[in-house]
Amino acid sequence: MEQGLLWPSPTYSCQVEVLKSAIGQKVYLVELRPDNINLGIHLSDTAFELLAVLDFPRPDPSISLAPHLVLLDDGRGINLGRIARISIDTPFNPPVEHLLYEDNFLMEKLLRRKRQLSHEFTEVRSKLLLGKLLGKVAKMERNCLKNESA
Predict the structure, then answer these.
(1) What gap in Å lies between CA 45 and CA 21, rounded to an integer?
(2) Please, what is the Cα angle at 90 between 52 and 54, to 5 degrees?
(3) Cα 15 from Cα 82, distance rounded (Å)
(4) CA–CA distance, 2 with 47 (Å, rounded to integer)
(5) Mean pLDDT over residues 27-45, rounded?
(6) Domains in the chain: boundaries
(7) Which of 72, 74, 83, 131 could be disulfide-bonded to 136 (CB atoms 3.0-4.6 Å)?
(8) C-alpha closest to that of 72 among 106, 15, 24, 33
(9) Contact criterion met (CB below 8 Å) for 107 and 99
């Protein structure tokens, strides 16, 4: 967890109430998929019926376990700390009025941030690696760093 952030966020309680009012509706999830190496995110066009919003007995911000979990019609109970967004009516880019729950921090850091896998990024990194391979590291790094900051 990042220093200085409130946990859960100030809007969390309000969003939990909105979720509770949507029990029985079909919802779309943006789920976090942590593993030993990295943190993935899963967007799906599969709708699930929201059966319940339950208190979670042992929340822990250090491992992203929020105070609530959602129970879905496929038999899963997912902690809200493992969900970036829950929406109704549309799975992708829902308008604000279709958002039931959104972890703004996660959405900004994982979905909306500038992507590094661009042609420019690949070009700069390739030149750096080639320069290291050819023994021209210092000059290549200076040139590439100038290009990155431009």
Answers:
(1) 22
(2) 15
(3) 15
(4) 32
(5) 85
(6) 12-111, 119-149
(7) 131
(8) 24
(9) no
